[in-house]
Amino acid sequence: MTDILIVLWWHMTPGTPSIYFRPESRQGSKRASRCWNMEVMRTMLGSEVCVNILFVHAILGCDTTSSLYGVGKKIGLKLIHTTKVFLEQAQVFSKRDSTQADIIKAGESALVHIYKGLQGYT
User: Fold this and answer.
1) Which range of residues forms the domain containing residue 59?
2) Is residue 62 classed as helix, strand or coil in its secondary structure?
3) pLDDT value at position 70?
4) Cβ(46)–Cβ(56) under 8 Å?
5) Which of 57, 62, 113, 115 is the most buried (most CB within 10 A)?
6) Alpha carbon 37 to chain centroid distance?
7) CA–CA separation, 21 and 42 (whole Å)
8) Sequence-ordered alpha helix ranges (H) in the chain
9) Is the C-alpha dihedral spanning 38, 43, 45, 49 positive or negative?
10) Which residue in 97, 80, 100 sits closest to 89, CA to CA?
11) Has residue 120 been placed in a domain?
């Protein structure tokens, strides 16, 4: 479910027709699943988060990568909003002219930020 939400937020742009997402209820659950209005959620998250959400999703764990110990997506989303350096590191992954070395350095630095480590020891 998370993967689908992430991709929907990333692909939506202003003017996209309204999209609603309602996952199936978990087996055995007594309450109905929520219905997500993607446009409202994108507005709540903000455009900077949505543009960089694939980076946050990939670095903090998705179906193809392991999740980091004790770190959830909420921390990554907060860092995009509050830490200019983390946002800049995320943007390296979207630049067409980023080299492999640039991406490795930005990824390592982002992990240091996530765990509140000292820069320069990557």
Assistant:
1) 2-114
2) strand
3) 66
4) no
5) 57
6) 18
7) 13
8) 2-11, 38-45, 47-60, 73-82, 84-92, 100-114
9) positive
10) 80
11) no
Residue 119 lies in a domain: no
Per-residue burial over 94-115, b = 16 or more CB atoms within 10 Å of its CB, e = otherwise: eeeeeeeeeeeebbebbbbbbe
Please identify which residue in the block is written with the tokens 């699943």.
Answer: 33
Tokens encoding 30: 């007594």
Per-residue tokens: 102:
């640039």
Question: Residue 12 falls within a domain, yes or no?
Answer: yes
What confidence score (pLDDT) does residue 11 get? 78
| Structure tokens given for 101 | 């070395």
Q: Which residues of the chain have pLDDT under 50?
A: 122
Place of tokens 């479910």: 1
